[in-house]
Amino acid sequence: MRKVYLILVAVALMLSSNFTKAEEAEFLSITKVTDNVYNLHLNVGVVVGKEYVVLIESGYGEYKDSNNKILSAVKSITDKPIKYVINMHSHGDHSGGNNFFAERGATIITQKNAIYSGDFESKYPKNNSISFEKSFELNLGNEVIEIEHMISHTFDDGIVYLKNSNVLFVGENYKPNYLTYLGMFGLDSFNTWGEKALTKLDNNTIVVPAHGKTLRNKQELIAYRATYKAWFDRIKSLYQQGKTANEMSTDQLALSFVNKLNLDNNPEHHSKFYQSSIDGLIRFEMDNAMKLTPTQMQDYVGSYQLANKEDIQVEILAGRLVAKQKNSFISWLKPIGQDKFESMTFYGEHISFSRNKSGDITAVKASFPEKTHYQDRLTGQWSKTSNSSS
Fold first, then answer.
1. Is the pLDDT of residue 19 over 60?
2. Minimum mean pLDDT range among 16-20, 91-95, 346-350
3. Fold that domain 294-386 belongs to in CATH
4. What does the alpha-carbon distance between residue 206 and residue 226 come to, in Å, rounded to a whole number?
5. How many CB atoms lie within 10 A of CB 288?
6. Is the pLDDT reported for residue 61 higher than 60?
7. Exposed / middle / buried, residue 78 (Cβ in 10 Å: 0-12, 13-18, 19+)
8. Which residues lie below 8 Å from residue 362, measured CB to CB, with a gap of 6+?
């Protein structure tokens, strides 16, 4: 079952002018990062420009009245309007308020792969939106915001750097409240986002993780990543020794690394998610029995069609076979048998290809170990119509 990791800090609905600044900050769960930059503990950054405000993420949406809480928080900081909302990735707890803020005049900025999210139709406005491929820049007069795409926590993930303030928002690639997810391409994603983030940093850069109140710096980020890699290597060693996932979860050396990753100093840190984190490592990084050559992968590349359904596109991306369908899913495909793949989503649907007598790929279909929210969109058999993805 897909696990939804939602960590909320209580935020009040109303402000009182009698509060001191410290009381207001606690009441609204606001952390002041610099003079013009704030972090709300609803997965939202606030950047106050000369004439308008930019939000980094849009929060949980209607869940626990996140939309109005964000508005109240921004109004406690400035009277300037919210003109842009930057989505760092498409998960609902980061993009849930998109339509709310778009209806109030904000433009939503997102990476183009968000169209493959199962939440795209419901959480992204048809108007008031900008999509980009590799990078995007906003000049606020007193601040320049750089957004850089990477395939990490999702296929539409990114980092957001504020050049004048020297602040880096890294999203869920760096979290204080539970173990960081390696990313859609496993360790490759972990390495990629680290390399991109570290090129932005100097010894004075403030690093803002997702899902927490903590602010960090370059050395702390480097130490976190080194400790995480040590944990990863320990789990891999135990896997190679034939240990079960349960045995791995109680290994004291592995736990010693995990305890060092407790940025919030919370005694319950990781406890709810540790077993699933290990299961994810095994599934993405260690349980890879089959390999395909680039030539073999090329056989599957193309566009697949089914009447009244969105096309399925299959392509090679960063050396991996990737399948995607608008408003549904995007995933790399791990080979598990002849013409059979596991889709590396939370649900692990199986993708099977058919061949004709000449050995050419002619069709694709999916089967589902458990129900998914996009199952209806992906049910049926798609016929191959071309050998190159669009």
1. no
2. 16-20
3. Lipocalin (2.40.128)
4. 19
5. 13
6. yes
7. middle
8. 354, 355, 356, 383, 384
Q: Which residue type occupies 237? A: S
For the chain, state the CA radius of gyration: 22
The residue type of 24 is: E
Q: Which two tokens stand for residue 224?
A: 């976190």
Q: How far is CA 237 from CA 175, 253, 259, in A?
A: 25, 11, 19
State the number of CA atoms in the 13 A half-sphere of 217 facing the CB: 5
- Altogether, the residues listed in the chain come to a count of 390
Return the structure tokens found at 387: 């050998």
Q: What angle do CA 370, 292, 379 make, to 5 degrees?
A: 30
Chain position carrying tokens 């601040």: 143
* Rounded Cα distance, 366 and 208, in Å: 39
265: left (phi over 0), alpha (psi -120 to 50) or beta: left
DSSP H helices in 117-251:
120-123, 187-200, 218-240, 245-249
CATH number of the 21-165 domain: 3.60.15.10
What is the reported pTM?
Answer: 0.88
